[in-house]
Amino acid sequence: MSYKVTEEGNISIVHLDGEIDMDVTDKAKEIIMPLIEAKKEVHLNLKEVQYMDSSGISVLIESHQKANELGTKVILKDISKSVLKVIMMAKLEQILNLG
Amino acid sequence: MNSQAAISEQRNFVVKSSSLKDVRSFSREVFEKVNIDQDLKDELVLAIAEAAQNIVKHAYQGEDTEDKMEIKISLDKGDLEIGFYDKGRPVDQNNVRHRKIDDVKPGGLGTFFIQQIMDAVVFKEGEKPWINHLVLTKKINY
User: Fold this and answer.
1) For chain A, what is the mean pLDDT?
2) In terms of DSSP H, where are the helices of A1-99?
3) I need a surface site. Which of A23, A88, B99, B107 has the fewest CB within 10 A?
4) Taking CB atoms and an 8 Å cutoff, what residues of chain B touch A65?
5) Residue span of the structural domain in which A50 resides
6) Residue A58 burial by CB count (10 A; 0-12/13-18/19+): exposed, middle or buried?
7) Model confidence over A25-53: pLDDT tens digits?
8) What is the rounded average pLDDT of the residues B42-71?
């Protein structure tokens, strides 16, 4: 997994790239959580994520819940077909913010 | 009618999270030989990777090990069987359950995905030298 973070005002845009599994979830959290803790609105661009498993979905849930706690939000953008399928399999399309 | 030649392939992987990408590569290689649609291939790869992840997370509880797990994918006349063999802690099938799907929290989804994708999930006692033997099956139409 690789990533790039850009800033637009109070919005942090995180572009994730590659496959997100148990092996990279700690790295994903290290990227995303500090932005949420800084009360940034975080846009996760998932266009280039070709694979996500239940560990990756857990990162999305944890990020979403942390943002809710802190009064900000995480919005999933440009979700790839394969990731959207897993989100729907987990029945999270009404829970997570899909933008 | 299933005109596909029977397939039976197996490979061993060190039980660690960095092996999961190799597990996926192996699974994709095998399913490339099968005339089924890409969505189903992707689902099967996910189910296999989730089961392998469960071995790393639960049978070995994330500990460092040089132990290997074996994954065997067999397909004959539309009957897909995927076997997982490991030497970790014995798994009690009664303790294997996914979280309630409407109780949204991180974790507990891997087993749910496997059950969604496969027709049957059976834990067996492994024959020596294995401790656990998990069998996933699914009827495949192609």
Assistant:
1) 97
2) 25-37, 54-69, 81-89
3) A88
4) 104-106
5) 2-98
6) buried
7) 999 999 999 999 999 999 999 999 999 99
8) 95
CB contact under 8 A, A65 and B50: no
User: What is the CATH superfamily name and number for domain B7-139?
Assistant: Histidine kinase-like ATPase, C-terminal domain (3.30.565.10)
Check A95 against B39: CB less than 8 A apart: no
Q: Best interface-test mutation with B: which of A53, A63, A84 has the largest number of B CBs within 10 A?
A: A53
Nearest in space to B92 (alpha carbons), one of B59, B56, B52: B59
DSSP 8-state assignment for residue B55: I
In order of B49, B107, B131, the CA distances from B22 in angstroms are: 9, 22, 22
| Chain A CB contacts of B50 below 8 Å | 53-54
Q: Does B106 sit within 8 Å of A58, measured CB to CB?
A: yes
